[in-house]
Amino acid sequence: MFHINVCLKVKNPEDIAEIRELLERCQALSRQEEGCERFEVYQSQAEEDRFFLCEHWSDREAWEAHKEREAFSRLYAPLVMPRVEREPHISTLLGGEGE
Q: What would the pLDDT profile of 90-99 be if each residue is shown by its tens digit?
């Protein structure tokens, strides 16, 4: 299993609603991809300009293939990434399979 968590902070408050919609679309598309075990997007209640992506992929190769799919290549990379500060964390699930 391959896990990545991404923290996003929207640069311009005027973009928050559109970023939220784009991330919801990315979530729906990503969940349909082969190798996607879990893909969740959260918006902070305390700071509405902050979003968190929690992704579980069957393996690193599935995650790498995700970068070529519509959710990442047509929505996330061109429309979201330029408008956010992004902090990705490849992670280990504690108490899980312990990669």
A: 999 998 654 4
Q: Into how many domains does the chain fold?
A: 1
What is the DSSP code (8-state) at residue 52?
A: E
Taking alpha carbons only, the member of 82, 83, 66 closest to residue 27 is 66
Which residue range forms the structural domain that includes residue 14? 2-91
Mean pLDDT over 57-72 rounds to: 97
Integer Cα distance of 15 and 13 in angstroms:
5
Q: Is residue 33 part of a domain?
A: yes
The residues facing 7 across adjacent strands are 52, 87
Q: Is the pLDDT of residue 14 over 60?
A: yes
Residue 27: phi and psi, rounded to 5, are -60, -50
Q: Which residue has the tokens 């969940």?
A: 31
In a domain? residue 82: yes
For 50-61, write each residue's pLDDT tens digit: 999 999 999 999
